[in-house]
């Protein structure tokens, strides 16, 4: 682009289009005196001033500057990109300038290709110049004996031209090619073209596709071509190609069942004449299903059996069939359990499940996959608990996603080995491989993930299993620390527990925990190590009335993780401990009393308790051994006693009670006599004797009224016994006091019936 102005004019020593990487001079001629400025792509650049010299007859003469125009210029080296150069006066913003375009001259035209579409009278040709010229380039095709046909080269260096065939009997064309621009011009030719060789059939069309499970037929539009090329591939797969002479119906065999394919075709007049047509639009079709023909790969692990179950429990796993083996969509899995007694139990599991729990005794399991066309071959596996072998497995990481596993053959021998592994805590993600060697490469592991791994040797005498606690292809220190909690606390000891770290935060296999304890007063830090998976520790030796802070960290083989949240606490004082013990003991005693009072509500317990209490009262010695008894031993006549009943609340004269003495059995009890004197009252209760002066009373179980009446009274008094003391309690009965003096020669106390109160 040329910017012309009244202030100045510009020019280039090599024009507006220059060879890429060349040098040239850019000049500005100003029409008036001013402060001159030159810019390149808007950036000011330095310039050199040119002074004109005027001579007269070979002698330089002086001139006036203001009458003569002045010129400034810059030398540009190695230009490689399109640039705009401009000039202006500092006092006048109006510029003048020039766009400089670097480029290449054209190369010799080559790679001429011409096409004549079937049933068309036009020919289209295309050729190249080896490389793009960057600058505008003109292409020309000249047919021998005719005018030339011009076009413009595109940016990628291709030229094209279309021209008509004037004679229907013409079989050949002779053409010349020319390419030119401001930097040069090149010509090639003459080129001879046989029209029969450039005929191109129209693009074919696939009308319909019909398929079975192994082959497909392509139905195309009617055409007269004898050569057809077919390409087909599974979706997102690799194309396969073959040629055939069929015309309207094309058969493709050796396909896979239940697979979606893309189909395309193109055609040609024959093997030697003409050009290939364009590929047809792709047509998609899915083949039909077949019954699976491959048995499942099945494995199992032992499970904990349910409570009160006598059967053994297993988790059955199987690998899903790949697309080529499944031969269709798997609808379900048939699982049959065969016990030794002949009892058969069938279970059906549906996708996406690939495992099933089985509880049985001495049984085998058969598993098969089912699609719409049938069932796969049955895989039978005997369920037996493997014998465990410890300390045999070793491993070595190969990279971030694989591990090599080793074990000795002599200690865990077998005809075949099953190596299984799964992420810790996710048994659903189990994987396994079968090997015959004592080495296995476990692949597809996730970095910073902990896996449980085991090797099972399959032997006729029974399987043997060796396990390894945790393996990881690559691990780092845990990302998060455990959260501690207080379990129980005493003045000098503490039980602390902590939470599990989430699986994604572990970054490998946990090996141990460290419990940190800091004394806030002294600043001492103590640490205690706990092996994973244990999550509890008892800290002893704490000082009373002291405050501490506690936290827990977790470890992998790569190092220690960050501390979890802190847990501040203070130990109680000894006085607080004693107070808590007293409160605890008082509560226990109160609870025991309440329990005893509740038990005493029962009548049988009540009766037993009352009898025992009566037996605890003092026992009167045997009056038969007294002097008085010996004196009146010969008098067997009836003796009558009168007892005054005294009631402290009544001032009336007490009634006399007549007591009859009856013979007593060899073992008997006696009426108890008490004497009580009160310092604050003159009231006394005495037994008044009418016929004798001595104060001895001997009786059987009843005082009067007979044996039956006494038993009735006793039952009535026991039934009236309640939880709290009443007037019927044996401890609140009126006391019987005897007057006079008791003289005994020999005192005999028989305790044989102390507890016999029934």
What best-fitting shape do the alpha-carbon axes yield?
flat
The share of residues in helices is under 10%
Structural class: mainly beta
- Main sheet? 6 strands, mixed
Poorly predicted regions are: 63-68, 631-749, 751-758
- For the secondary structure, the number of strands is 54
Number of domains: 7
Please give the radius of gyration in angstroms: 60 Å
Mean pLDDT: 77
Strand content: 35-45%
Give the distance, in angstroms, between the N- and C-terminal Cα atoms. 138 Å
The helix tally amounts to 6
Quick rundown:
The chain is mainly β and 758 residues long. 9% of the residues lie in helices and 41% in strands.
Overview of the structural elements:
With 758 residues, the protein is mainly beta. It has seven domains: 2-103, Immunoglobulin-like; 110-198, Sandwich (Immunoglobulin-like); 202-286, Immunoglobulin-like, CATH 2.60.40.10; 298-382, Immunoglobulins (Immunoglobulin-like), CATH 2.60.40; 387-471, Immunoglobulins (Immunoglobulin-like), CATH 2.60.40.10; 484-574, Immunoglobulins (Immunoglobulin-like, Sandwich); 603-732, no CATH class. The chain is 9% helix and 41% strand. The chain contains six helices and 54 strands. Strands 1, 3, 5, 6, 11 and 12 form a six-stranded mixed beta sheet that branches. Strands 30, 31, 33, 34 and 35 form a five-stranded antiparallel beta sheet that branches. 19% of the residues are buried. Mean pLDDT is 77; it is low at 63-68, 631-749 and 751-758.
């Amino acid at each position: 682009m040329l910017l012309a102005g009244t202030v100045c004019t510009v020019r280039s020593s090599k024009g507006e289009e220059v060879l890429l990487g060349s040098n040239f001079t850019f000049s500005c001629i100003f029409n008036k005196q001013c402060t001159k400025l030159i810019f390149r792509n808007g950036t000011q650049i330095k310039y050199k001033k040119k002074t004109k010299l005027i001579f007269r007859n070979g002698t330089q003469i002086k001139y006036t500057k203001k009458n003569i125009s002045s010129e400034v210029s810059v030398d540009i080296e190695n230009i490689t990109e399109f640039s705009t150069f401009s000039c202006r006066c500092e006092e006048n913003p109006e510029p003048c300038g020039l766009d400089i375009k670097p480029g290449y001259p054209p190369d010799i035209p080559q790679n001429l290709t011409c096409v004549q579409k079937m049933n068309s009278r036009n020919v289209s040709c295309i050729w190249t110049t080896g490389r793009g010229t960057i600058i505008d380039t003109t292409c020309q095709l000249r047919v021998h004996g005719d005018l030339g046909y011009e076009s413009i080269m595109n940016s990628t260096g291709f030229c094209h031209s279309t021209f008509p065939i004037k004679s229907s009997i013409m079989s050949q064309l002779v053409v010349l090619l020319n390419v030119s621009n401001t930097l040069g011009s090149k010509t090639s030719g003459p080129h001879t073209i046989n029209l029969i060789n450039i005929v191109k059939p129209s693009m074919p069309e696939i009308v319909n596709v019909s398929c079975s499970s192994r082959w497909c037929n392509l139905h195309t539009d009617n055409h007269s071509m004898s050569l057809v090329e077919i390409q087909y591939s599974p979706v997102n797969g690799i194309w396969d190609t073959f040629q055939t002479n069929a015309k309207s119906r094309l058969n493709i065999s050796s396909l896979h069942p239940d697979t979606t394919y893309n189909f395309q075709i193109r055609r040609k007049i024959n093997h030697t004449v003409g050009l290939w047509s364009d590929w047809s639009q792709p047509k998609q079709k899915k083949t039909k299903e077949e019954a699976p023909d491959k048995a499942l790969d099945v494995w199992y692990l032992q499970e904990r059996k349910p409570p009160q179950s006598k059967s053994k429990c297993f988790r059955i796993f199987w690998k899903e069939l790949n697309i080529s083996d499944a031969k269709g969509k798997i609808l379900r899995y048939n699982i049959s359990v065969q016990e030794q007694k002949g009892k058969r139990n069938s279970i059906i599991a549906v996708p996406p499940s690939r495992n099933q729990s089985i509880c049985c005794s001495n049984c085998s399991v058969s598993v098969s996959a089912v699609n719409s066309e049938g069932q796969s071959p049955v895989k039978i596996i005997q369920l037996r608990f493997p014998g465990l072998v410890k300390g045999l497995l070793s491993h070595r990481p190969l990279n971030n996603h694989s591990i090599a596993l080793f074990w000795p053959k002599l200690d865990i021998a077998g005809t075949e080995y099953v190596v299984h592994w799964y992420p810790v805590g996710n048994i659903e993600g189990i994987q396994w491989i079968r090997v015959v060697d004592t080495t296995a490469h476990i692949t597809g592991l996730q970095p910073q993930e902990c896996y449980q791994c085991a090797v099972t040797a399959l032997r006729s005498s029974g399987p043997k299993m060796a396990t390894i606690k945790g393996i990881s292809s690559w691990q780092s220190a845990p990302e998060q620390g455990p959260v501690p909690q207080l379990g129980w606390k005493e003045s000098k000891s503490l039980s602390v527990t902590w939470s599990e770290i989430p699986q994604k935060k572990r970054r490998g296999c946990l090996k141990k925990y460290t419990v940190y304890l800091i004394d806030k007063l002294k600043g001492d830090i103590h640490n205690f190590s706990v092996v994973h998976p244990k999550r509890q520790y008892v800290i002893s030796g704490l000082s009373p009335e002291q405050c501490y802070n506690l936290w827990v960290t977790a470890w992998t083989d790569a190092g220690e993780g960050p501390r979890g949240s802190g847990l501040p606490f203070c130990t109680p004082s000894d006085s607080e401990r004693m107070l808590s013990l007293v409160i605890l003991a008082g509560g226990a005693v109160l609870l025991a009393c309440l329990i005893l009072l509740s038990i005493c509500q029962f009548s049988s317990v009540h009766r037993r308790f009352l009898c025992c209490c009566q037996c605890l009262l003092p026992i009167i010695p045997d009056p038969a051994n007294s002097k008085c008894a010996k004196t009146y031993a010969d008098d067997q006549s009836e003796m009558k006693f009168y007892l005054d009943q005294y009631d402290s609340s009544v001032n009336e004269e007490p009634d006399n009670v007549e007591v009859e003495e009856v013979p007593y059995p060899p073992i008997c009890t006696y009426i108890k006599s008490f004497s009580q004197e009160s310092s604050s009252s003159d009231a006394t209760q005495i037994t008044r004797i009418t016929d004798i002066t001595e104060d001895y009373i001997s009786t059987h179980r009843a005082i009067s009224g007979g044996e039956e009446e006494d038993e009735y009274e006793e039952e009535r008094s026991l039934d009236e016994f309640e939880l709290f003391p009443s007037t019927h309690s044996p401890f609140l009965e009126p006391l019987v006091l005897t007057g006079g003096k008791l003289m005994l020669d020999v005192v005999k106390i028989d305790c044989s019936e102390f507890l016999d109160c029934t």
